[in-house]
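Fold this sequence, please.
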Amino acid sequence: MKTKVILAGLLACIGITAQAQDAKTEEPKGKAIVQVMANFHTGFGADNDNRGFELERSYLGYEYNFGNGLSAKAVMDIGKSSSVDDYQRIAYIKNAMVSWKRGGLTLNGGLISTTQFNFQEKFWGYRYIMKSFQDEYKFGSSADLGVSVAYKFADWVSADAIIVNGEGYKKIQINDGLNYGLGVTLTPVKGLQIRVYGGLNESGEEGKKSTANLATFIGYKHDKFTVGAEYNHMWNAAYADDANQYGYSVFASAKVAKFADIYARFDDLYSNDDWNVAKDEQAAIIGAQFKLGKYVKIAPNFRMSMPKATGANIGYSAYINCYFGF
């Protein structure tokens, strides 16, 4: 009798173990990528007629981990046209890339995320509310076709390099020039991070100048608050000789509850000899973010735009930004 009981117990254990192994084997290694960014906004004063609901951008894709550090990701970007008169949605392939990680080494290839301002964007943390400085003022593209490599030498220092076409993910390669970039990230103490990035985007056309970029950033992240500041300089914007742009951005955020935080940011954009004064501005934003569960965020905020062109009016607006994603 005891023997039968023992055998029955062993069989039960084997059955449970087999089921657990099967469950582990059947567990999916991939995950869907769904991100939707929308807002309701209204202007005040001179911008009083600028109001309405807006679907800013949607990301739809899939990421799969093959094991041994190898993974692949494909993401479609559905956004609005750059033309102010075109309200139709336009779809682009944002990422179509393969990554391999081993120890401190990371290799990426394909239509990849660029490294020019990716670090700053993640540190800022409110991309669905407002893009980071370089992305907002078109200092570079967030994705491009090429390869990148990053290596973490120690807990306090890492470096990365990238070579891409230089025309972003919305255009095919037309010019012969390439875009090269080198970056170094330092973490001297826990929470404090410093980054320096330099890039050269070859014009590939006779009579046009290559565009150069310098991006510097310092930030401190704590469990309760975050502060950051960046300075950026671009030489020969749009491959035009002596068309330089530069500026800085400072921001801060603080957690006021488990589901809520507040944030503020100030940007200042210049151009040498005021060649781009029609678009140069100071901009400020202040607001709050509320997390409604795991996948939804709502962020009411107030914005002020101060154009540098003579006679231009200061713009005031209120937004309610919404995000859904997993």
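The CA atoms of residues 41 and 298 lie 13 Å apart. The chain has one domain: 2-325.
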